[in-house]
Amino acid sequence: MDERPLAAVVTVSDGVSHGTRRDESGDLAEELLRAAGYEVAARAVVPDERPEIEALLRGLADRGLALVVTTGGTGFGPRDVTPEATRAVIEREAPGLGELMRHAGLKKTPMAALSRAVAGTRGRTLILNLPGSPRGVRESLAAVLPVVHHAVELLAGATGAHPTGHAAASAPPAGAPLEAPTPFVRATAVKLHGEPPCRLGNRIEVVPGGPVSGTLGCAEFDGEAARLAPEVLAAGEPQVRTLRHDLGSVEVLFEPVLPPALVAIVSATDVARELCVLAKRLGWSPALVEPRSERVRPEDRSLPWTVVGGLDALALDARSAVVFTDHDAPGLVEQLAAVLRGPAGFVGVMGSRRHVAPFLEELRAAGMTEEQLARIRTPLGLDLGGRTPAEIALSIAAGLVAARHGRSGGWLHEAR
Question: What average pLDDT does the structure give for the chain?
């Protein structure tokens, strides 16, 4: 898949819902999914109440998320109803996934046989039950994630690919730029005053001008959250607001959830491949840009980042970075000119001043101003003394991190 598939984590627990237990299993599930290449676009906590679980799963699946995982409520306790709620929501069951998780668990403990976890699909969404313990979450995801990734691809409409990895993924279609996931605001009740119609931990997610998922407990709170969402998203920083009701008030943490910033890494070089790996781990959405198809290896297309034939296939914005890794690539001047006329916040070119100077002169001759040329960072990266592709990529990644935080880099013990 060319974009990070969107996932949601649902914690089913009376204790977590009532604020008497930490959501360790939900936190771990989110961590493991992110490490596996998923963008966790939603988190939710519900008590062990079947109608609430069903309503939440339907809402998340109908948002078009690729994967929804639940944790908790899969055992033999009288309030363990997650499998029943899941079966009421899914349209097709996938029994093999539950069997695979139980098989993996039985290698650790015979108690895994008591898990009633199920999995299935609703529309293009895969819903997967996980155990309630952090250990069970880790073991179950380790068992099924390789298969789940292929299932998600098939649900998204992929054809011809096989989980063996022998078939290379097709290139993205030409045409409109690739779209980024929709930004939204997550609002969570963090403190109650009086007896408002809201539970601690209630959560709503709002796409300004678009869909709403979840609830803070009443229509008044939900409406106020929807009204505040565009303001919070524009500010770009988490903030706490107090929402009031005749029965009491609630302090709500509003968090803007933005898609990972795009970093376009131009030319399929060894440095570019190393930089894709680092950028992914550091929270960017990397895209390898290479118009010369013969330079793209089959494995480039099977890795968790986008491969495109030109910068015009990407929707660059002010948060985006563009890094040119081959100063001898054809069309470099034209590509640089197009980027400098656009909104990208970071533009870098690998190469010494001697190699890049002729390109700067061509850009001046093409009408680029000195202010535009000053945006080009070259030589590129922090001075780490690196020589290998991995070391050079690390120096560039360090420069990206420094630029993201408005710093120049350098040893901390020398900072004043």
Answer: 87
- Alpha-carbon torsion (339, 341, 347, 350), positive or negative: positive
- Whether cis (ω within 30° of 0) applies to the bond prior to 379 is yes
- Does the pLDDT at position 213 exceed 70? yes
Together in a domain, 32 and 146: yes
Q: What CA–CA distances, in Å, run from 185 to 19, 194, 234, 235?
A: 22, 26, 10, 11
> 231 lies in which domain range?
184-257
The answer as to whether 388 is a domain residue is: yes
pTM confidence score: 0.51
Task: Quick: pLDDT tens for 388-416.
Answer: 999 999 999 999 999 988 888 888 877 66
Number of folded domains that form the chain: 3
Determine, yes or no, domain membership for 177. no
Name the residue with tokens 């299993």.
Answer: 25
Whether 371 is covered by a domain: the verdict is yes
pLDDT, tens digit, for every residue of 28-77?
A: 999 899 888 899 988 999 999 999 999 999 989 988 899 999 999 999 99
